[in-house]
Amino acid sequence: MDRAGIHVEVAVAPWGGIERRQRARNDRTFESVVHTHIFPRSQIDIVVHVLQQDGGVLPTAINTCTLALMDAGIPMADYVTALTCGLYGSTPLLDLNLTEQSDLPFVTLAVQPRSGNVPLMLLDTRIHIERFSTMVGISVEASKVIRDEMDAAMRHRTEKLAHAMRGARQELLDEEAMAQDA
């Protein structure tokens, strides 16, 4: 095998609520963005534990996995951001909770914001094509906002880590200088 495999496992705590349907275990949402060719003959495991759910479990898991992959240093071509978009009359609503998902037609999208690719789209109800197009358009625009927030969070974390490393290195240099002076 000349590429890494990506294995996703989602576990929901028994007290965490009910999942309306099971997701396929061979989900390929991240395969198009993770540079798997860098890790031949290996496997990347993504394990998600859901402790409580009040709607938006899938988008939250996708957003969390994106950040976890980046934090682990796995090279990626783009972020994968996800969200739900529901329709109340003719008004689109973003990031629905469980009650809203039960009462409104909604679509769940995973988007690669830079390219605009949509690796995942789930729609359980019928929606007029014009309203559906509006929902998808708003979701793609919202994914760019989520990407910007994720990017800012990752840059902030990286700055903190780099600062901590510089500080630790400086402490070692100071200790060595003191040891040489003594």
List keywords for this structure.
Ribosomal Protein S5, domain 2, single chain, 182 residues, PNPase/RNase_PH_dom_sf, Exosome non-catalytic core component, alpha+beta, ExoRNase_PH_dom2_sf, 6 strands, Ribosomal_Su5_D2-typ_SF, 4-stranded antiparallel beta sheet, two-stranded parallel sheet
Description of the structure:
The chain has helices at 57-71, 98-103, 129-181; strands at residues 5-12, 43-50, 81-88, 91-94, 106-112, 117-123. By secondary structure, it is α+β, with helices and mostly antiparallel strands. It has a single domain, classed as Ribosomal Protein S5, domain 2 (2-Layer Sandwich), CATH 3.30.230.70. It has a four-stranded antiparallel beta sheet. The chain is elongated and about 80 Å long. The model has no long low-confidence stretch (mean pLDDT 88). InterPro entries: ExoRNase_PH_dom1, ExoRNase_PH_dom2, ExoRNase_PH_dom2_sf, PNPase/RNase_PH_dom_sf, Ribosomal_Su5_D2-typ_SF, RNase_PH. Belongs to the RNase PH family. It holds the Pfam family RNase_PH. It comes from Malassezia brasiliensis.
CA-based gyration radius: 21 Å
Report the count of strand segments: 6
Count of DSSP-assigned helices: 3
Fraction of residues in H or I helices: 40-55%
* Mean pLDDT figure: 88
CATH fold-type name:
Ribosomal Protein S5, domain 2
Integer tally of domains? 1
In CATH, the architecture is 2-Layer Sandwich
CATH superfamily: GHMP Kinase, N-terminal domain
Our estimate of the beta-strand percent is 15-25%
* Element string (H = helix, E = strand): EEHEEHEEH
Q: Which of globular, elongated, flat, extended, rod-shaped describes the shape?
A: elongated
- Strand adjacency order, main sheet: 4-3-5-6
End-to-end gap: 56 Å
GO molecular function, one term: RNA binding
Organism: Malassezia brasiliensis
Pfam families: RNase_PH, RNase_PH_C
InterPro entries: ExoRNase_PH_dom1, ExoRNase_PH_dom2, ExoRNase_PH_dom2_sf, PNPase/RNase_PH_dom_sf, Ribosomal_Su5_D2-typ_SF, RNase_PH
